[in-house]
Amino acid sequence: MIKTSLDPEKLECMANKLKALGHPVRISIIDLLEKNEKLTVTAIQAHLKIEQAATSNHLRILKDQQIVKSVRDGKNKYYSLKLLQLADIVSCVEKCAD
Question: Model's pTM, two decimal places?
Answer without folding.
Answer: 0.86
